[in-house]
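Help needed: design a sequence for this.
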């Protein structure tokens, strides 16, 4: 017969064993999720300036001209973009998988040929109202916060950029290949927006481009679709840079919160995070420090407030993504000697 005294001793022994195990786990070295030098870590003390869609409050989202504008602000800028594959197999830059919100035409990108987008001079310089990525009202041309409409000629093109293939009046479709060629030294974050077969086609074409331009060490891939993220994990070939999906972030957060991050072994190179989500604070020094123990960089999005930019610098963030490259550059200038 087990007495209460024996039961208490058993419980105490189990708790003691758990405490000892927890103490041992706490001092174990953390695995380096990314082996070697991590190209997504900041250079020095100042985070990487990351242009969200090229800086989509200064120029139309995900256009070549927006990225040229960001490059004119900082030639080391990291470029964040979203991509989809067209019917004829070309990877173009677009936040949506349809053309309704950002252009003067409608339809799924996967149903359009890139050659037709160019031949018809489809204009990516809009911010139209949409519902479920379908046009839901009158089309609206892109305007800056000051209410100014812009054209491709308003961009301060870097001297080394050849814009001969661009249009003077409309913001043409931009391909990922154009980006890789025009900005051969810049880091680029590429989020695959499509899912299913189109998402898989996009991934395969992106791999081809990375091989062609030897860009595996400067392009990081992302996707919110589990089946596409699984392709990143399963890829066997050149070292692929990628960030986790939502569940990967949740797993990292919970493990670091409980001190059990020794079990976090996903082969990612960067966490791309909001500062908070569902009342969970992710923009903290603790999160950044835990990530750095794993040789994982931390990039925060989408930061447009100067005070928040300064706070993220203070906690050691590796990258700050913004819609306003000029604004973030002004904050960084405060820290220059």
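Sure. Designed sequence:
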């Amino acid at each position: 017969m087990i007495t209460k005294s024996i039961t208490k001793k058993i419980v105490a022994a189990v708790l003691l064993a758990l405490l000892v195990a927890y103490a041992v786990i706490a001092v174990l070295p953390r695995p380096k999720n990314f082996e070697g030098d991590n190209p997504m870590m900041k250079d020095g003390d100042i985070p990487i300036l990351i242009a969200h869609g090229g800086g989509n409050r200064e120029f139309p989202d995900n256009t070549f001209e927006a990225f040229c504008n960001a490059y004119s602000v900082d030639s080391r800028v990291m470029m964040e973009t979203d991509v989809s594959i067209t019917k004829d197999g070309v990877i173009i830059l677009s936040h949506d998988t349809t053309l309704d919100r950002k252009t003067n035409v409608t339809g799924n990108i996967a149903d359009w040929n890139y050659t037709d987008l160019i031949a018809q001079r489809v204009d990516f310089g809009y911010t139209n109202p949409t519902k479920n990525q379908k046009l839901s009202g009158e089309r609206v041309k892109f305007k800056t916060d000051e209410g100014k409409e812009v054209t491709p000629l308003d961009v301060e093109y870097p001297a080394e950029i050849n814009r001969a293939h661009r249009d003077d009046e409309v913001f043409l479709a931009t391909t990922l290949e154009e980006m890789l060629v025009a900005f051969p030294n810049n880091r680029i974050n590429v989020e695959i927006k499509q899912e299913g077969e189109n998402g898989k086609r996009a991934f395969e074409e992106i791999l081809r481009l990375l091989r062609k331009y030897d860009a595996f060490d400067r392009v990081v891939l992302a996707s919110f679709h589990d089946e596409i993220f699984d392709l990143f994990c399963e890829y066997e070939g050149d070292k692929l840079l990628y960030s986790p999906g939502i569940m990967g972030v949740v797993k990292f957060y919970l493990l670091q919160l409980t001190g059990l991050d020794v079990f976090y072994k996903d082969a990612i190179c960067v966490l791309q995070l909001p500062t908070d989500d569902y009342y969970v604070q992710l923009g903290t020094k603790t999160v950044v420090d835990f990530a750095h123990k794993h040789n994982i960089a931390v990039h925060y999005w989408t930061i447009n407030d100067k005070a928040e930019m300064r706070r993220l610098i203070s906690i050691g963030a590796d990258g700050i993504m913004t819609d306003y490259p000029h604004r973030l550059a002004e904050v960084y200038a405060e820290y220059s000697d």
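The two ends are 76 Å apart (CA to CA).
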